[in-house]
Amino acid sequence: MLTQPLVSQSFLDALECPQCSVGLHLGNDELECIQCGARWPVIDGIPCFSNGDGDLSQTDAESLLLDTARYGWQAAIEDHLARNGQMRHSMAIRQQRAAWLPLIGLRDDAIALDIGSGYGTITHALATTVHKVYSVEAVPALLEFTRLRMQQEDLANVYFVRGEATELPLAENVFDLVVVNTKLELVGEGRTKEDPREIHVRFLRRLQRSLKPGGVLIIGGKNRFGHQRLRGTDHSGVPLTNLRSPSIASLVSPHQSTHYRTELNPIIQHRHTYCEYGYKKLLLESGFPFATFYWAYPRYNRPSALVSTERQPLAAHVLRTISDPSLGSRAGRWGRLLKFKLARLGLLRFFIAEFLIIAAKDGNGDPSQNSKVIQSANSLLPKESRITNPVGYLCSITEAGKSVILLSEHNEFRTRLVIKTWARGSTEPGTLVQVHSRVSEAEAETDRFMVPAPLGSFTLNSRSYAVETPAEGQSIAALILNSPPRKRLRFLEVQLPMCARAAMGVSRVLSATVAVPGIDSTWLTIPDQTLLDRQIASYINMEASRWKAQGVRAHGDFSIENIFWEASGRRIWIIDWAHVIEGVPPLYDVITLLLSAVPALALEHREANNHDVRSEQQFLAAFFGAGAWAKANAKILHTARARMEHTNLDIWKQFLLSLVIRANDFFARKSKLANQYCRLIELASKNRARFVCLGS
């Protein structure tokens, strides 16, 4: 196990006296200011510039640290936060909290600062990305927990500092990146006699001074006029404090709030939040002349998308979420349509709930535009076709570490470039490029489908990037789910058979010349969460052995989100070739296609309000019902089987095995759909007699 860096001269180069801004000298277990003589203790190798205990009780602190040393940091934090209910433990564990890293593209030798590091989630993500990280936290137990977390992960490039945000001992021109996630609205919360905004300006000026030329500041915060704030509460736990003046809000918060922070600190001050204009004015006054604002969707602590607040990217994102099959056919549809209209009018930006702000120290334009990622991707285009004013949109952020960045021209609705990024080593970019190349060669051989053109790939810091052109047209998901329910069956009858024919051509395109990974054997096993009788389990096991041996190849994620229809050329486009696989049943892609369309099914009877129950009703109606949708699915499956080169294809057995593979695939991606698919496997086995293709 690696040890953390001790206080050394290189450590001290980043610190200075918070009172007179002069360098520090290391004495006997203490730091001393060279000029004013102020002293601060060094305890267990950590310089201590504050002496408060924070909002963690002594009992909880001792329990957390003891469990961390005994059971490991992850088990300890899950148990600790589950018992206290202060925040979702996933926010303290998963590095999705630092999902903005691909937009910045830091150098390998970058130095980063995480202020208010808490349980060390962002510090952890930074430590695997940059050369050196300084982790600043006022609560000693949390700082010690983060140190244990880094030790257990064998990360030895993190320096720890105990200090308050209002008195940061930071030297000038040291850091390439400073992160303030959640912390800005909490800065100076106990200083009830000072204007919160003045405290925030002093705090940000200190950070601006500590950044190197070209350095970047990341802020995660809430919108003062966000729609969630207008109908709920802020961090103080008091309704509508964001609409009150800071002085009144600070007066009433301690008396009305039941928030856990207020209970621990009865003189706590109101958390002062800002709107987009307020943040821009605050940053400009603090020495940050340019800042890019993103809608952190659904929240900045665990975003699934980061969307520029400009009109066109916002509208594109809302349109994308409207056609998200996981949202179902009815739930919140009118609200999402209203958001789309507001986005097209340029009004949605005023009411989005939470921001992710990227601010530049120098006035050289948009910091995200100037990032190495954007520049490297743009350079792969011919010079005359390059994007002059690019806007980046992180449209897909997964907990498994993969992200997709869409680049467009400023004020253009159309996507110009697609950048896929993942942690280096988790996926081989060569495989993705090879598949794209083989499919591109096959375009002349078939008019059934097209694929985006791969433009190249590069590595930057600890991430790999693959750049490609976007698909033409609209996704099948958008075409179906954005249509009235009464018209969706028509799309099913016309579009899905075309998609199914394309699916059957995929295996032929993925010839032996392409290096396709074999299926993981664990994906062919029934998930432990699923209860099946022996006969059904036997069907699945025999079918799995048969097709793994025959080496059938498939796209792997042939869903309506990954298939586009180009109306002008009447062509199918298929995207996302990162999941190609060998050893699946021949109908796997076709079955995946039909499963992905299930959320579009409009039930004949009243739909359940519960999303899971509604999904199960739709699944049974689509594959075990007697309606038009079930008949259309049966026709597609029979037609696909008739076109297959393989003999003795039992559609029922392939359907069951495909459900098992999809469930295990979602488990591997850490998707919430995994448990839902386990339930679908059980439903399918119980309703076998009603299957639309039984005996086929």
What report would you give on this structure?
The chain folds into two domains: 9-314, Rossmann fold; 474-690, Aminoglycoside 3'-phosphotransferase, Chain: A, domain 2 (Alpha-Beta Complex), CATH 3.90.1200. Helices cover 39% and strands 17% of the residues. The protein contains 24 helices and 23 strands. The strands form five sheets. An eight-stranded mixed beta sheet has the order 7-6-5-8-9-12-10-11, with helices on both faces. A five-stranded antiparallel beta sheet has the order 13-14-15-18-17, sandwiched between helices.
Describe this structure in a few short sentences.
With 696 residues, this protein is of the alpha+beta class.
Which key features would you list for this structure?
single chain, 696 residues, alpha+beta, Rossmann fold, Aminoglycoside 3'-phosphotransferase, Chain: A, domain 2, 8-stranded mixed β-sheet, 39% helix, 17% strand
* CATH C-level class of the largest domain: Alpha Beta
Largest sheet: 8 strands, mixed
CATH H level, superfamily name of the largest domain: Vaccinia Virus protein VP39
- Helix count? 24
CATH-derived architecture of the largest domain: 3-Layer(aba) Sandwich
CATH topology of the largest domain: Rossmann fold
Distance separating the two termini: 58 Å
Number of domains: 2
- The low-confidence parts are 259-270
Q: Which secondary-structure class do the elements indicate? A: alpha+beta
Report the principal-axis shape: elongated
Q: Count all strands and give the number.
A: 23
Mean of the pLDDT scores? 81
Helix content: 25-40%
Strand content: 15-25%
Instruction: Write down the Rg.
Output: 27 Å
